[in-house]
Amino acid sequence: MLDDFIFSLSVALPIFLIMLSGFIFRKKRIITVEFIDAANFIIFYLALPIKLFNSVAESSVTENFDIRFIGYALSATIISVIIVYLFSVFFIDEKSKIGAFVHGTFRGNFIYVGFSLMENVTGSIGAKTPLIVAFIIPLYNIIAVLILVFTNPANKAKNQLKSAFKNILTNPFIIAIILGAAASLIDFKLPLILQNTADYFDVLATPLALLTIGATFKIDKLFVDIKSSIFATILKLLILPALAVSTAIAFGFANEEVFLIYVLFGVPSAVVSYVITAAMNGDQDLAASIVMMTTLFSVFSITLFIFLFKVFAIV
After folding, report:
1. Assessment of whether the complete model's pTM goes beyond 0.85
2. d(CA 290, CA 231)
3. How far is the C-alpha of 129 from the C-alpha of 131, rounded, in Å?
4. Which of 83, 175, 273, 299 has the smallest count of CB within 10 Å of its CB?
5. How many domains does the chain have?
6. How many beta carbons lie within 10 A of that of residue 301, not counting itself?
7. In CATH, what number is assigned to the domain containing residue 214?
8. For 253-300, how does the pLDDT look when each residue is reduced to its tens digit (9 = 90+)?
9. What residues form the membrane-spanning segments (predicted)?
10. How buried is residue 226: exposed, middle or buried, by Cβ count under 10 Å (0-12/13-18/19+)?
């Protein structure tokens, strides 16, 4: 059991330490705002799309396209939003905070932190992960717009929905997955020189993403709305993943699928939830606080869940 605990800690702690390094480098001004902007551009438009393309192209799309599993992931996401919203109606005093609370609680950092977690545990992001990304990212964006419009009628619903659909169609991750699927179906292989170059960007994606997440931390935002942030953290890191995983086990999904479901629901809140909430006139301070708190406490929750997965031989 001690070995299981050490393994669990060795999975979660390095993720946190890389983010902590980014935070320290930013405080020491080794990492600048210009570096963060440039790194985010490289991650979003190059490194992570290449990682997704490689993963899909090197797998069999027809064999890994599991409509039952994808349907479960989508349904569980929608149900999680409903659970969080109902919770917020009863427990969040200021109704103006509901949009930011719901968005920050249901939307996890699945690609940046999730990919790192999966690589630490299994050695790769897996064949089904990019397919989940292809469906979950559009769903995240649509739900985010709907919930923020619904909780703040001052937002222009038509324009926001139009913008969301445009972002989906032009999202580099979605484009990379589609191209990777096409390459897989026709058994297309990149020339060796290009493939080796792509592999370097593939390896770069995860650590650079974690470093930039840490560099954007603002500790002063952590205590803006401590009560709501604590509620969000408990829901995001413990209750929602526990419900999703236990239900996935009850449905008889394979161990690797159960673990993927945990990663989807158990990672901390996505930084983009703050960006979108701020852009749509939501409570940006609460959104930032949820991102900070869920990220800080995720090292404990991830260690706990991985430990349980090891004990029950799921990973």
Report:
1. yes
2. 9
3. 5
4. 175
5. 1
6. 21
7. 1.20.1530.20
8. 999 999 999 999 999 998 888 878 887 778 888 988 999 899 989 999
9. 6-26, 38-57, 69-91, 98-118, 130-151, 172-194, 229-253, 259-279, 286-309
10. exposed
